[in-house]
UniProtKB/TrEMBL annotation:
Domain of life: Eukaryota
Official protein name in the record: Calpain catalytic domain-containing protein
Family of this protein: Belongs to the peptidase C2 family.
Gene Ontology MF annotations: calcium-dependent cysteine-type endopeptidase activity
An annotated GO BP: proteolysis
Annotated source species: Myodes glareolus
Any one GO CC term of the record: cytoplasm
Annotated PROSITE patterns: CALPAIN_CAT
Active site: H86, N118
Amino acid sequence: MTRLAGCYQALDGGNTADALVDFTGGVSEPIDLTEGDFANDEAKRNQLFERVLKVHSRGGLISASIKAVTAADMEARLACGLVKGHAYAVTDVRKVRLGHGLLAFFKSEKLDMIRLRNPWGEREWNGPWSDT
């Protein structure tokens, strides 16, 4: 990779999965959520979360992004705080128990959570479970 770009400092933009493969020699598995009807199929979403949880627990590197369809769409800031075209690092994947104390221990309801980090750090998620 450095031979292609001259040096690491010259790297700017591009596909995160390609960069991870180039830097680590690993294998990437891109998943397009719009193609799999994940929005309407809870079983598929649950299966995907279990896969992501498994990869994360084994030390895999995971990134996520919102595809920008046009050049004008690039860098579009959504109402929730996320930015189209930015690469987000997945920093944690957990099943969080709801409730407090013994209620949390015995209550079986859990929430699937994925923590993302925007390396540019200029905008933050402002929806449910945000800092505010």
